[in-house]
Amino acid sequence: MKSKKRLGFFGLLALIIVLNGCAATHIALKPNKAKEITSVDVHIGLAQQEIYAEIVKSKVATATGGGLIPALIDAGVDQHRAKKAEELIQPIRAALMDYDFGRCLTEKIESELKSRAWMKINNVRVSGDISKKGYEKAFADSEASAILFVTTRYFLSPNLIVLTVSNEAKLYPKKGGKSVDLRDGNCIYKNLLFFEDSIDTRPSSKEEVIHCWADDEGFLTRQALDAASVGLARMIVIDLDTSGTYEEDRRDGKETVIFRDSQVKIIRLSNGNLRSYRSR
Amino acid sequence: MKKLVLFGLAVVLTISLGCTKPAYLKTPYLENHGPRLVEELQDVDKKVLEVNIQAIDDRRGEKEVLGIVAGRVVRGENLTHWVAGGFKLLKYFGYYVTFERDKEISMRESINLNIEIKTAHVRSISTSMSATLVLGISYSAGGRPFGRKVYRGVKTDVNWVSGESEINELFCLALVPILKSVTNDLDGLYQGRDF
Fold first, then answer.
1. How many domains does chain B fold into?
2. Would you say residue B103 lies in a domain?
3. How buried is residue A76: exposed, middle or buried, by Cβ count under 10 Å (0-12/13-18/19+)?
């Protein structure tokens, strides 16, 4: 009986440890792992070609405990909200017609990372295929000793005031042979890197907010996305630098400003994620 | 009852397996179903005129993947072919379409179009999906340019099963407002109105 209780306890402990590991959004790159890397390919996954606005999802099914009819109501409400969001965002998309965020992001990351010889960057490319198969093919085709996958999304909040560029970065070593295993357990670095910008004024309607972002050929949006490219490149450099260049005074695991220049300010969050903002 | 449950499970499994494969934008779908989608917009009494498409250039940065719908990759490598198929539907709006790159000035001048595909994408929004097409079109006739316009078509609809047919229909429906706007502009040009 005692041995069964002990088994149950250790089983529960193991489950908690595993689940905790699975939920971790930050795995710091260890110096001994960094030393083994001789070259890095950067693969940016960007599944969208234009900016979009998020919607507040309907939760009738959740509120009523589930069922087919509430689910159908949710689908109908979400479809209406999605249609409105797509209509509202058109002026910003029209203003950004000649702005290729994927290309800008790739160029900024390539120039920033390649300027640092210790990063050993080979190639930087962007692809719209962010599926598991797409990433596995990119991994198999790469000739570098490690591949950094950066999955990127950029969008406006449901109230259209905040512009966010969200990136999930994962670094996988290539261990030789033909095996491709992109499970989290095999990545030697992982982090969520965010950039946020917002309209300074508080417009009275969503249409006014859209005008702010779209006016002057989308000046504010282009400025924000350009800063996001700079911020993301800097965040990757900071996170992959194991030399101690960026000393972090993390008191009690609270948020800390770890980098600031004329373009961006970067903060380390309590969970290890990085968040950057345009310097004002 | 047991047989019904097993049948239901088999259906769900089949749909799930189908949904993991990429979906492709297919010109034959446009050719077969396009007429149905533009049927209500036709003007059957309209005199048939000619329009010539000199070129369709794909200027997109990402040419292979159109987007991801509920985890399913949507591919559109040969989009110029699809757009050409879409513009053939102008015949239902009273315009017979030819595709001649170096059309000489003839007795019967037709308006020439140069089409640029600026963007084409599809994405999931909760339980819906949205397709967008943006084309830049330059108009000319007899070597004389009339001008250039950008046309955007968007269609948002409920995503039932992320099926290939559903996704193809969504793109067809996103093309329809573009065809309607182009028809209005062609009508204006043939009637001598300013562009």
1. 1
2. yes
3. middle
- Asked whether residue B17 is domain-assigned, the answer is no
Cα→Cα distances B129→A178, B67, B173, Å: 36, 10, 12
Cβ–Cβ under 8 Å, residues A25 and A190 = yes
A50 touches chain B (CB under 8 A): yes
The three-class DSSP label of residue B169 is: helix
Residue B53 placed within a domain: yes
Q: ipTM surpassing 0.90, yes or no?
A: no
| Residues of chain B contacting residue A135, judged by C-beta atoms under 8 Å apart | none
Q: Tell which residue, A160, A13, A192, has the closest CA to residue A85.
A: A160
Q: Which domain holds residue B37?
A: 22-190
Smallest Cα–Cα separation from A75: which of B127, B69, B161, B160? B127
Question: What pLDDT digit, counting tens, does each position of B81-128 carry?
Answer: 999 999 999 988 889 999 987 655 444 568 999 999 999 999 999 999
pLDDT in tens, A11-36: 555 555 555 445 678 999 999 999 99
- State pTM to two decimals: 0.86
Neighbours of A98 (CB within 10 A): 8
Spell out the residues 6+ positions from residue B111 whose beta carbon is closer than 8 angstroms to its own: B51, B52, B139, B140, B141, B146, B186, B189, B190
Chain A neighbors of B156, CB-CB under 8 A: 79, 82-83, 86
Topology of the domain comprising A35-51+100-278: Double Stranded RNA Binding Domain (3.30.160)
Tokens representing B88 are 């053939």
Query: Which residue from B66, B73, B125 is facing A82, i.e. has the nearest CB?
Result: B125
Q: Please report whether residue B12 resides in a domain.
A: no
How far apart, in Å, are the Cα atoms of A251 and each of A84, A203, A256, A272, B70?
A: 45, 38, 8, 13, 41
Classify residue B99 by burial, with Cβ atoms within 10 Å: 0-12, 13-18, 19+: middle
CATH at B100: 3.40.50
Tell me which residue of B114, B191, B188 sits closest to B145, measured CA to CA. Answer: B114
Using the beta-carbon criterion (under 8 Å), do A49 and B150 form an inter-chain contact?
no
Task: Identify the residue among B21, B65, B116 best suited for mutation to test binding to A, counting A beta carbons within 10 A and taking the highest.
Answer: B65
User: Taking the domains of chain A in order of start, what are their residue ranges?
Assistant: 35-51+100-278, 54-88
Contact A151/B at CB under 8 A: no
CA closest to B76 among chain A residues: A128
